[in-house]
Structure formats: structure tokens, C-alpha cells
Amino acid sequence: MKRVLWLMIALAGIFSIAACGGGGNNTSGGNTTGSGGGNGKAPEKIIITAIPDDNADKLKEHFGNIAKYLEGKIGIPCEYMHVENYAASVTALANGQAHLSWMGGVTTVQADQQTEGGAVVVCCRDIDKKFKTYFIANADSGIGKVNDLKDLAGKAGGKDFTFGSKGSTSGHLMPRYFFTTQNEGKKPEDVFGKVGYSGSHDLTLKQVAEGQYTVGALNYATYDKASDELKAKAPIIYTTPTYVDYSFVARKDLGDELIGKIRKALLELDPASEDGKKILGFMKAGKLVEADMKEWAGIRNVMESDVDIGG
Amino acid sequence: MMQRTRVESCYAAKRPWGHFAALLVIAVLVIGSFWAVEWDFSTFTDPAKAERALERASGLVEAFSDPDFSGEWLERCWELTKETLSAAVMATFLAVIFAYLLAMGAAKSVAVGVEPVSGWRGRLLRLPLHLFCSACRWTLDILRSVPDFAWAVILVAVLGLGPVTGAVALALNITGILGKVYSEFWDSVDPKGYEQIRALGGGRLKTFLYGIRPLASRSVQSFTLMRAECAIRNAAVIGAVGGGGLGAEIMYQIGMGKWGKVTTLMLYTLGLTLGADLASNFIRRQLRSDPNHPRAVKPRSTFANLSRAYIGVAFAMCVVLWSVWFMGWGNSGGPDGQARNYLEPLAKLGDAKERKKIAFFEDLLKPDFDLESIGYGDPAKREIQEQMGTTVKFSDEYEWYDFWRPSAWVSWEKSLQNWFVWRVVKSAAVPLAMAIIGTLLGVLAAMALSYPHSLAFQLESQQFTGESPHPAVRALRVVQMALARGIGLVSRGVPEVMWAFLFIAFFGPGLLAGSIAIALHTLGVLVRVFSESVDNIPYRRFEQTYRGSRMSCFAYTAGPMSWKDWMTYSFFQFESNVRMGVVLGIVGVGGLGFFFTFNFEWFRFEKAGTHLLVIILLTVVIDRISRRLKLSRVG
Are residues A180 and A234 in the same domain? Predict the structure, then answer.
């Protein structure tokens, strides 16, 4: 019995320690993220996040640069927070763990939905207004260029196919949408042998090049950045029509003034300057341009028409 | 005379039809699992694919022979190992506390009392206690049946990525398991053992503290230890869905194809799990104080006897404190080398305003039953669905009296496909099929491997064979046993999920990869307990039947004698394999778990809720069946 008593005292002690620690953090945590309230009070620190559509190390470097640049322009400390999947970046923005986020098309709309209109598009790249997806095939598979996705279904039926991340626009939603509409409602699952999700665009390219999957779909920007060796192993067989995609999304409760400042700083990025060369060069953009949430209505329609993902 | 008739009637009543029934059931299940879901054997049948798979496999072997031992990487792995360990410790600690409290509610002997009551007043007074008891049981059931990976998928969105998410996810699941088993232990204590405490006027709590708890404490301790070991294994892989630790890095490096780094990470994982294995064996030996054991007779000072418990508790507390410190302030394993407070999001949950922001998860509690397609629910939506032709209509082609035509069933099933809930239920076939095939393969392999694995048949066989083997023969047997033990150790030390990652890289995602992963881990777990139960048989039992071949002695004497134990363990493993099937779905194999994460990540919480419900039902149904058939026992 004594043992139990001791145990309980020890437990109580630990709990109180943990509670104190927790309490202490609570206040400081609230301050650093400072996400509460829509009264436009600027947070002490701006947390930037992004959908993980590329190699994590590259993203950390790139968004570290953006954070540093923004910090210099708006005078508030900025920090990049890496997340491991697309949904986490949306929830991070929706529950205030992050203030500014680099989103894909689907995630932009999801951010708007999950914050119930509390998100605003800051800007997007010039190329985002005309985005497209490449379908690629393993070079050894003998699937040459196809005219449309119906043609692809005929040639590659029964072969393995991979999308990128489940939550990706250019790596999943749009290729799926184009495939289904061009094949009279037949899903990729009905046509291909196995349909997988590689997790990101660079993995799609790698896995198709290595033959783990025969066919894949990925966004053209990642493909264009890749090495020639990989491109030779996984040539493009089809290019989709264009659509809108990525954007910088911010929480509305940052206040119009601060959002305006961020927007101004990002739009000012000049490919001639050193910062601009680094940042825009990575993003494969000429410059960043103004955009509005309304432009993502097309994506929203595709999402709401309930693209059947199976299950 | 009386005795004899009783024995006879006993024989007559117990025909061995059970074995045939069991074989039949297994055959049906195997056929069912091949029929209900599509298996892709093209890696074996398609020569081009086979060649590529072989190439990849040889590449893998090559890659694994070249682990990355650069100083920087080793340091990073060490940090990740500590992160994993701290998550596991914290999970176990939280789970033990909550499980203890919940189990006190869920144990009938503790919460309600087992002494008979008379009169309506007594019964009425007990009613609220009964309700409380079943509420606790349901809570435990739900906590237990949602796999830790599913908890992690949900929690990542609330707590963000990091070890604390993994710790809480593991804690929730372990709470369910520990709570159920604790309450069963307490309920199975004979009331006569603590009757005097009630007789002396002890209340419910005192009866529990002074009567029930001490009587069951040995089993409670040993089971907790077993789960702690499991927690470490699971913490090593829960990073795959955002729980931090080694798993996250392994998943990432496999994706990048950096096999050298993967090998190092796997070696660390193996080291961690084996370390846990050894440590728990050591602690178990300390706990075991059998009064008849020769060691217990040895005179010891009172201090030596009492201090052990205090030292044990103090050590456990130190480890827990370390894990809290490490998670909060000491973890500098992050990419920027800066200490990061992972406990912060947990503390934030206490804030009502912060909590409101995650309110959209409430939709998870409103599962989508798609009533419109089966003719109920909102009429407006129903009309739309009818126009689109996505409603369930049974009587289109066949009437009910066509039930004898197989084609009628096919058409009915096709029509039923329009109902979302049916699709969800059907997707449960994937984890089930994987569990059935995986367990079966694993059990068969474990039976075969327990012969070379067994101490009795390899090293100590001369005790019942009477032979005196040549030293070379002995050496051969030692090598054989070491090999078998090595295989067992590695295949249970590497968690299923990690095996699955490897086989996915080899066969591509699918049932095949999942089943083989499950089979391999099952083999590792079972071969240990199988050969243990063989080794526990007194050697004189073998002496009588030994006829010159150790192998046939094993097959015809040891096997049948430990058969019942083997089957109990196998069924216990099957239950956990079904849960594992769901988990493997979450990491990409397919089926129920896959669709759950899919819908969750697409913020279709209502649909994810339905999947979650089916996951819970799957476990609860199997649990109830096994309880009814008394197929598995605790521990």
C-alpha cells in the first residue's frame, strides 16, 4: 500500500510540474503565435508554411529565404514551419498555427472552406494562372505520345499508374478530372492495373523513371526543373489543358494593413535583385502577381462536383 | 463406479469435431479472402515485372550492405532514437494512468461490486453504477479499436507534426488495451480473497486498494511491461503518419531511395526494439518473486527486500521525467539544431479559444450513412440521386424469388455498391484478407521454425534421446539454433509497418506486400512463444515417445502437446493482425485504412467518420466472437 501511496504522490508531483510547465507555455505560446482575435493586431512572429510538394531540404532552404526577405521588408520576425502532408498545411492555417501559407489549387480552396472565408489570397506566380500537368511514361514501356487520355487508356490499360500526393491539384485532382471527363466517366482505377500515390511530384518522376510505376502524372514545373537524365527515362506523353494552381494564402485576421504589406513585399520581388533571383528562380516564376480567391472558383467546382476518388 | 461413468460420458460428449470445423472455417476464410479482394500476383507472373522486381531486390540487398555510418548521420539517428524512446515512455506513462482510472470504472468487481443484492432498492441503487461501468467499458472499447495510426492521422491536424502527436496517439490506443486487460484481471480475482476487507467495513475504494489490486498486481505489472515493449516498437514507426521519431525519417529516406541511410535507421530501430526486449526480460526477472524459487529462500535484509520496489519506482519516474524534459526542452534533433518545445500544442488544447479552432473536427462524429441512396433521408437529395441513377434498387432485374440464381446476387451486390456504407464495409475485406493470409502463413512458418528454435530439441535433446552427439554435430545444432533465433529476433524486432515499406518498394503497394509483412512479423512473434511452450514440456514426456528421430518426436509429441497454446497465441495474433491490416492500409497498402486517411485528408470528415465507425466495429465484432468462443486469453 505504501508503494501505491508513494507512486501516487510521485504522480501528483509530476502532474503538477507538467501543469505548471504547460501553464507557462500556454501564455508564451499564445503570444508568439498571437493568432487570436480579428482585431488586426499584428502577431509577434509570422509563421510561414507550405504544402510539401518537393524535397523537404529544398523547401526549407527556399522558404527560409522567403522568411528572411519578408522579415527585412515588414519588420516582423518570420519563420518557416515544415509540414509533412498537404492536409496538415491547411489545418495549420485554419487553426492559426501558421499565418501565411504557400498552397496548391485544392489546398487554397480547402483553406478558404476550413477557415469559413477567413483566408485571403495574397498573390500567385505569373505561371500559376496557366498551370498544367504532364502525363509521363517509363521510357522502356513503349507508350509513345498520346493524343488524349482516352488514347492513353487504350494504350496503357492494365499498367500501373501513380498520382502525386492525394491532396495535390496538379498531381491528383486535375489529372484525375481530365482523365475521367475524357474517358466518359471511367475512373483511373477502372482502367489502370494499380493506382498509387507517390506522395510528391519529385517522387512520381523518380518512380516512373525507375519503372516502379509505368505511367504517372505530375506538375510541369517540377518536371522542367528535373535533370535531363530523369527526363530521358520518363518522357512526357500528354499535356493537359491549363488551369489555376498555387498561391500565397494568408489568414484574414492578420489585418488588412499587414496583409497589404506582405503583398507589396512579395509583388516587389524583382528577378534582377539577388533575393528575387534566388526566390523566383526556385519557383520558376518571372514574378509574383496579384490574384483573388475568386479565380479559384473553377477548382472549387471540380472539387464540389465530387470527383470520385473511390471508397 | 460413479467416477467411471462420469469419465465415459465426458468422452462421449466431447467428439473431436471441433478440429474439422476449425479446418473448414480456415479453408472458407482463405478462399473468401482470395475471392473477395483482388490480389495482384503480376510480380510473379509477368516476366518483365518479375525481372524488374528482382533487379530492385538485388539492388536492395546491395544497398543494405552499405549502411551510412558517417558521424553526422549517426548523431541524427541517435537523436531520433531518443525522440522515439521519449514518445514511447510518455505514451506508456499517460496510458497507465488513464487506463488505471478507466479500468477501475470498467471492472465490475471494483465499480459495482460482486456481492449479491436483494430487494428492488438495492438494485435501483446499483443501476447508476452499472451504467457507469458500461460507459467506461465502451470508452475503452472505442479507444482500443481505433488503431494508433488512425489516432495519429486525426491528431496531426490538431497537434501538428512531432513526437508529441505520436505519444498521444499511442497513449490513446494503449489506454484502451491496458484498461480492458486491467479490468479483466481485477474481475477475475476470486472474491473470497478480499472478502475480509468488506467484512471489516472497507468501502469500494478500500476493497480495491487493499484487496483486489494487490492480488492482481503481478499480472498487471507483467502485462504493462509487455505493452511498453509494444509501445516502443510502434513509436518507431508512427512517424510515417506524422508522429515524429525514427519512422518519419525512414519513410522520407525510403521515398528518396537513400538506402544507405535507411539501413542505418533500421539498425537503430532494431537496436531500440531489441534493447527494449532485453530490458523487459530483465525487469520481468526482477518482478518474479516466486516464493518457491530457490532464490527467494535466500535470507535478505528487510532493506534489501523493500528497497527494490522503491528503486524500481524511482527509476521509472526518472525515465518519465526525462521524456517530459526531452520532449519539451531537450530535443535538439530538429533540422535547425535548436531545441523545440513539442509540448506547446498540447498545452494549447487547454485554451478554450484554441479549442474552438479545431471545432470542425466535430463532423467526424457525424458519420455519413448515405441514407438517400437506400431510400431514406432528405427527399430533395434523394431525387437528385435517383436522377443520377445512384440509388440502390434490388428489384430492377430480379425479384426476391430469384434468390437461387447466382446472377441475381451479383446484380444485387452491384446495385448495393451505390450505397456508400456498403462500399466502406466492403473495403474492410482488404485488412481482413491480409490478416487471414498473413496470420496463416506466419503461423505455419512459426511452427516449422520452432523446431530449430527450440532449446529442448537442439541443445538439450540428449536429455531425452539418450544419444551423445559428436562435438561437430553439436556445433551444427548450435549454428542452426542461432540462425533460427536470429531470424525470429529480426523479424519481430522490425515492426510490421517497416516490413511493409520494404515490400511496397519491392512488390508495389498492395495486398501482397501487406500480407507478407504481416506474415513475417507474425512469424517472429509466434516462434518465440511457440518454442517456449515446447521448452516448457518436461523432458520425460519426450523420453517415452522418442524413437530415434528428433524431428518426428517434435512433430508427433511436442507439437500436439503444445497445440492448444499455439492456437491460443495464434488467434490472439490474428486479432492484432486485423488491426495491423487497417494500419497498413493507412500507410498505403489500400482498403479501409487507406480510404479513411484519404477522406480525412480531403476534409470529408463525415465520410472519414463512417470509415472510423467500421474500423471500430471490425475490432469489436472480432473481439466479441473470440470472447464468445473463448479463443483467446489475456496476456
Answer: yes
Domain boundaries, chain B: 71-325, 426-629
Q: Say if the Cβ atoms of A84 and B242 lie within 8 Å.
A: yes
Cα–Cα distance, B511 to B509 (Å, whole number): 7
> Mean of the pLDDT values across residues B7-18?
62
Q: What is the pLDDT of residues B290-311, one digit of tens each?
A: 555 555 556 677 887 778 778 8
A83 and A216 part of one domain: no
Residues of A in Cβ contact (< 8 Å) with B360: 94, 114
> Binning pLDDT at 50, 70 and 90, where does residue A286 land?
confident
Tell me the shortest Cα–Cα distance from B308 to chain A, in angstroms.
11
Is residue B287's pLDDT more than 50? yes
Distance separating alpha carbons of residues A285 and B527, to the nearest angstrom = 59
pLDDT reported for residue A19: 42
Report how far apart, in Å, the C-alpha atoms of B438 and of each of B400, B444, B509, B511 are.
38, 10, 16, 10
Helix (H, G, I), strand (E, B) or coil at B132: helix
pLDDT of amino acid B292: 54
Kindly tell me if the per-residue pLDDT of B258 is higher than 60.
yes
Residue that finishes a domain, picked among A207, A239, A271: A239
Q: Among B306-320, B372-386, B466-480, B528-542, whose mean pLDDT is lowest?
A: B372-386
Write out pLDDT tens, residues B405-434.
788 777 888 778 778 888 888 889 999 999
User: Is any Cβ of chain B less than 8 angstroms from the Cβ of A1?
Assistant: yes
Of A21, A197, A210, the CB nearest to B328: A21
The pLDDT tens digits for A139-149 are 888 888 888 88
pTM value? 0.80
Structural domain total, chain A: 2
Put simply, the chain B residues between 578 and 597 with a CB less than 8 A from any chain A CB are 588, 594-595, 597
Q: How confident is the model at residue A101 (pLDDT cuts 50, 70, 90)?
A: very high
The mean pLDDT value for B53-79 works out to 82
Please state, rounded to an integer, the average pLDDT across all residues of chain B: 83
Interface of B with A in 236-275 (CB under 8 A): 242, 248, 252, 255-257
Q: Is residue A205 part of a domain?
A: yes
Tell me the nearest-neighbour CA distance from B161 into chain A, angstroms.
7
CATH number at residue A67: 3.40.190.10
Asked whether A214 and A140 are in contact (CB, 8 A), the reply is no
- Percent of chain B exceeding pLDDT 70 equals 89
* A-proximal residues of B, 312-341, CB under 8 Å: 313, 317, 320-321, 324, 328, 335, 341
Secondary structure of chain A as H, E, C letters: CHHHHHHHHHHHHHHHHHHHHHHHHHHHHHHHHCCCCCCCCCCCCEEEEECCCCCHHHHHHHHHHHHHHHHHHHCCCEEEECCCCHHHHHHHHHCCCCCEEEECHHHHHHHHHHCCCCEEEEEEEHHHHHECEEEEECHHHCCCCCCCHHHHHHHHCCCEEEECCCCCHHHHHHHHHHHHHHCCCCCHHHHCCEEEECCCHHHHHHHHHCCCCCEEEEEHHHHHHCCHHHHHHCCEEEECCCECCCEEEEEHHHCHHHHHHHHHHHHHCCCCCHHHHHHHHHHCCCCEECCCHHHHHHHHHHHHCCCCCCC
Domain topology for B71-325 = MetI-like fold (1.10.3720)
Chain B's closest residue to A20, CA to CA, is: B347
Nearest to A207 by CA among B46, B505, B3, B549: B505
Q: Give domain B426-629's CATH architecture.
A: Orthogonal Bundle (1.10)
- Res B353 pLDDT > 80: no
- Close Cβ partners of A105 (under 8 Å, ≥ 6 residues apart): A131, A169, A170, A173, A174, A243, A244, A245, A246, A296, A299
